[in-house]
Amino acid sequence: MAQDTMVPKLDFEYWLDKAIKWGQATTLESQKDVCLHLPQLQEFLHQVYETLKHMDAIAAIQQFPLIGQLLGRLCWNPFVIGYDESQKTLMWCLCCLYSSEPQNPVELKANSWIRSLLCHLLSSSKWESNEAETSTFISTLGYTSADYYCHLVKNMVFSLLAEFRGNQFNGLNMQGRVSGSRVNAVSLFCLPLITLPDLTPLLETLLLYQGGASKEILSSEFLQAVNDAFLKKKISLPESAVISLWLRHLPSLEKATLHLLDQLVSIQLNSLEEVACVIKDSLLPQAASHPAIFRIVNEIFKNVLLETDGTPEILTIIQVFTQLFLQAHQNENKEHRFPLKTYFPCHHQPLVTALLRRPLELPTTHWSQHLKHISDMLKALVEDTNISSLADLFEIWFLVAHFGEWLDIAAEQLLKAAVEPDALLWLLAFYYCPQNEKQQRTQTMVEAQAVYSHLMMLFSCTVLSVKDLEAAVHTVMKIDQCCNQHLITHLLTNFLLFSSGGHTIAQEFIYHITEATGRSKEVCSLLIRTAYRIKHNGEENEKTVKLLNELLQNLTLKV
């Protein structure tokens, strides 16, 4: 076989041998083998096209003498042309072999053969929904389109739905008569057609099908393919079917969770509403109403948080996810709703109950007292002699981190309300420095109290300069512990947003502090959370909102 040394993976002999054995996939054995090889075949065809598009037709045929036999056989295999983008790739490959100016009878005959294959592919194409484009293309070739494809798929789906949903006759349900091997075979044969809209009812029925078997009866290739198509938005499935998919196939749930995290981290999001929209669209918060799914998603979040050293973006994602999960849980039918303690079974339940209270459920005048209650319980747990390992300490901190809105409110209450500051400062000190021993946490408190006292002296000043806050900036710069810097940066940012004179120096000071500490992303996450909370808690202040938007616009450019 002639093969370009630049593309050693184009194994035409292997795939031609497969295509000959498959034929038109009329036997059970050949159909199964086709389905199992479709993803690799599609990748191979894509590589072929990427190679052909840089060659002329004559050179391509000389370089790959087996290509005509291979493409010709694949075009008549219904499983191949029905799979994802394989049909389109086959068409592009054929177009690359088409001679625009045929010089001899052989090239003319080759062009005629290519036209007939293209017509065949188009006549059974799911592209027929785009009638104008298809009609123009077919008309150019001098052919007319067949009209049977859509009806064929619909009839097949209808027949299988009747089989799996059960035939009701004189009260007799026939569902139990469908064997597990039959269900498995159908799930495997669905692989080439998964992205067809007409197949969606069958996908839903298969995913929700319960045959009573002790092990999974749907093929893992089917479950993985459905999940991939759903994540790429090539298919739309009802929530119940997606939840069933993730309960049946845990690798798909893990992939969906990591896909969501990658999606959120890789795109620029300028508001918490955008973050919430992406998370809600994933269906993961709704699916997490099932405790098994919640625990797996939560474990993935925990591992990612450890791997990224607790980056602000990941923390914000976890906090928004938790809020959306609680909303979905609240909307569940009471008869089917699991108690919230089911989701946090290993934690101190009074603390869980306190954290689960949404701020909007309490009058704003009660926020400080509620936060003090949380802080007191947390302090008693952390300083308990039974908490002997960093792992135990991390579990407590991770629980608190889910409910970051209360931490943000604590930082605001320190500046906006008449409060006893020690409990709220301790709460923030633990959140930002959970690994500290008691003596270190005491030092953290001393540093935080010094900055807080300095800020409170300036809080009512209507005219401020950056120089007035230099002492606080100096504190941030000289502190060795990074976590203490996080805490003080949080206090300084809130001071600029909520103090009388802070607005006038906010732009300059935020620039100064982010340049000095390299915390643009951290401050940006904080401002996004604050903007969301002000809007949704009914605290909207036109001047503060305008400042937040300006700060976010400038920081987004830097991030």
TrEMBL record:
GO terms for cellular component: Fanconi anaemia nuclear complex. It comes from the Eukaryota. GO terms for biological process: cellular response to oxidative stress; interstrand cross-link repair; nucleotide-excision repair. InterPro entries: FANCC (IPR000686). Pfam families: Fanconi_C (PF02106). This is FANCC protein. It comes from Stercorarius parasiticus. The gene is Fancc.
